[in-house]
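INFO  loader      accepted 1 record
INFO  loader      residues=413
INFO  predictor   begin
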Amino acid sequence: MQYELFIGLRYTRAKRRNHFISFISLISMLGIALGVAALITVLSVMNGFQKEVRARILSVVSHVQITGPGGQLAQWQRVADAARKNPDVVAAAPYVNGQAMLVNEATARGALVRGVDPALERRVAEVANKMVAGRLEALQPGEFGIVLGADLARSLRAFPGDRVTVIAPQGLVTPAGVVPRLKAFRVVGLFEVGHYEYDSGLALMHIADAQRLYQLGDEVSGVRLKLTDLFESRRVGRELYREIGGDILISDWTRSHANFFRAVAIEKTMMFIILMLIVAVAAFNVVSTLVMAVTDKQADIAILRTLGATPRSIMQVFMVQGVIIGVLGTLLGVAGGIALALNIDVVVPFLERLLKMQFLSKEVYFINELPSDLHAADVIAITSVALVLSLVATIYPSWRASRVRPAEALRYE
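INFO  predictor   done
INFO  writer      dumping tokens
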């Protein structure tokens, strides 16, 4: 073992005459640990939030949508058949989108109405697996059944078997003026995907009933596609545009919710920077610790210099102390952060019960629970930055130690 490392470790283990230096060293170590643990936990929660919201959105929204001019697509079978030829496309299903006012007794709510083919819809979305009452297959052509989001049904006070009036914005021109188109639909089911935007504002009906309601004839709004890899949606969309051709518009889930996912990415970056400042403050407490240690050990430094130690060796002795504080603090933080990130689903409900409050309300946030998704890349990045900051913090005090003059240090000894 090199003597610089040996002496540095000995200084770290030995009892100091000045216990205040030991206390500051402990505080610096715990500060680094706390910052690293908080950073790992927060980034894991943000990763989990993004993953959970993406999964809930994609349970309703398809990976790729193909529409025509004016939001109408003729000969959708040809488009769907052409899309299925792409090896990345798993399934295709037509849909009809429209706005409507839903009325039950004296309560009215605006909603997005989507006409679907239950047999094909199951292949491109997971709404059929999110039913809390009834079945999606209960939507039959000509029977005018409707499936409501759970929160939408709750606000309308509508239950399975009740009838709600659907008012379409397309009106009928009569001698008395424009009369809104309205039709009574029977509630045949309720779904809950866990995303408030859809649970409170989406209603499903059979595509044939939607075509009649919105006077589309044989046309549809477009075709929805499911892919083998959802992260390849942009590339597949470009390929489909070249393969299908014609006057079509292709959109994917990254574009339809671009603002949300871009905001999450920006927030994650900003949280990384802000919380890394905590680690930086704790790491630079090492500076004050080592400066006091250098002052306390001036006589020892002078003796080492008279025995032939070089200024570089003196620097290495005190850098060992600072690096040990940084390494131990980082390792404690990594262990604590990983443990907390992996058990966030237990810790948060415990705190909610203890404080008798709910941290996330689904009326305010997209989800009402705190998920976690630990990424090894985030842990490695945080660990590397914390270690680098700890190493940088040791440079100045170690350099000060190397500049101690033996004669002046031993003058009063």
